[in-house]
UniProtKB/TrEMBL annotation:
Name this protein carries in UniProt: Signal peptidase I
Statement: the UniProt record of this protein carries the keyword Hydrolase: yes
GO molecular function: signal peptidase activity
This enzyme's EC code(s): 3.4.21.89
Keyword Isomerase: no
Keywords, alphabetical: Hydrolase, Membrane, Protease, Transmembrane, Transmembrane helix
Transmembrane feature ranges: 20-40, 212-232
Length: 255
């Protein structure tokens, strides 16, 4: 009788803990998705103009924010009537007051192949392959309140270089920004889009990645707790049947 009461007590405790795990897991799981819905807007990348950072067809998460929070190196989603009005994804390489140029080596003699910002050479590890950072040389002075945007696939991207003769020399207003890319949601192997350290030494530095890691951790932890809690009942019953079977075998052997 004492053994039966102990087993019943352990069973009730296990059921309580499994129910608690499912409840907490549900809060974390649904809370993570709810948090993400408030902070992030998903987009499908329409072209390869930002390859290899993001490719056509990939699903990305853009943090909803004001354009005033954008820094050099950020990959942003924006809408601008002069660019057709549709959502576009490009990388910010210059902000108001900057002089962006290519292709030079930072000393003004034009014998290099990299991007310069205010005469300082900027490494761009997100570009694929070797060669100049732009097939066509350009220089642009970015007006205050605007940002200069380039695609990572410099050979085919239609970006600020295409609009150099427009007002603002191809730079778009900060108010046109509707989001900043933080992660590739699909495929799952895409991961977080890190900020390039090459822009960190420039005034204003680089931005921080949003809460996407915490959101993903909340969803993953919630899913694990839900699965663990839901698995308790079947496992307990299976172990109980095995224990009962061993008990009967001992009794039979004794008889």
């Amino acid at each position: 009788m004492e053994s039966e009461r102990e087993e019943d007590g352990r069973g009730r405790l296990g059921s309580t803990l499994s129910g608690l795990a499912v409840a907490v897991g549900s809060v974390l799981f649904l809370g993570g998705f709810g948090w993400g819905a408030l902070v992030y807007q998903p987009y499908t990348v329409p072209t390869d103009s930002m390859s290899p950072t993001v490719a056509a067809g990939e699903r990305v998460l853009a943090q909803r924010l004001d354009g005033d929070r954008v820094r050099r190196g950020d990959v942003v989603v924006f809408r601008d009537a002069d660019w057709g009005g549709s959502p576009m994804i490009k990388r910010v390489v210059g902000v108001g007051g900057d002089t962006v140029a290519c292709c030079g080596d930072g000393d003004g003699d034009g014998d290099g192949g990299g991007l310069t910002v205010n005469g300082e050479s900027v490494e761009e590890p997100y570009l694929s392959g070797r060669g100049p950072a732009s097939p066509d040389a350009f220089t642009a002075k970015v007006p205050e309140g605007r940002i200069f945007l380039l695609g990572d696939e410099r050979m085919g991207s239609l970006d600020s270089r295409t609009h150099l003769k427009d007002p603002g020399q191809g730079a778009v207003p900060r108010s046109a920004v509707v989001g900043r890319l933080d992660a590739i949601a699909w495929p799952l192997s895409g991961g977080v889009i890190e900020r390039p350290e090459s822009f960190a030494a420039l005034p204003g530095g680089i931005s921080e990645v949003g809460p996407v890691r915490w959101m993903a951790a909340s969803i993953a932890a919630g899913a694990a707790l839900i699965l663990a809690g839901a698995a308790y009942g079947p496992l307990a019953r299976l172990l109980g049947r095995r224990g009962a079977g061993r008990g009967r075998a001992v009794v039979d052997a004794g008889s």
